Amino acid sequence: MVKRVVRVIIRILPTGRFSVHVHGFTLIEVLISLTILGMLTLLVPPLLLAVMPSLRLEEATKKSSVFLRKAQNLAITTNSEKVVTVNTKEKWFRMGEEGKSEPISDEISVQLTTPESEQIDKESARIRFFPEGGSSGGQLVFKLYDHSNFVTVDWLTGRVRVHVDTTAQE
Hints:
Shape: elongated
Number of helices: 1
Structural class: alpha+beta
Distance between the termini: 50 Å
Radius of gyration: 29 Å
CATH superfamily of the domain at 51-164: minor pseudopilin epsh domain
CATH class of the domain at 51-164: Alpha Beta
Strand content: 35-45%
Strand order of the largest sheet: 5-4-3-7
CATH architecture of the domain at 51-164: 3-Layer(bab) Sandwich
């Protein structure tokens, strides 16, 4: 015997007659739907975890590019040189000497290429932004597993660009 989960609609027609409509699903249909939903809930979290590393890498890339653009804008608007220091070992960057350090996720490796004159030590270097809009230039490389993102600062224009490595295997 098949039981139905039903919704009954009774209408009284203008002629005085009753119209009965029965809508619903059998118990088997409801159980099958719930089973499919349960299997989907088991499959979706592992798929999201596979996407998470690229999201963390994207977040670090965007955060640093926004920070560098802010430094460039401040240099132009205040008509004074702004310096962004990046430490690739301790994984942080900051503006100025007393500025607040912005952390970079521990699982992301960071490489910084700048002119030799801007190197502080093996792990730290600076990118300078000048009032006329230029900069000392440099490139940050963020790597996580087989994914890489690049943030490049043009020395002539000070323009900050983000490049995503599309050759990484998904």
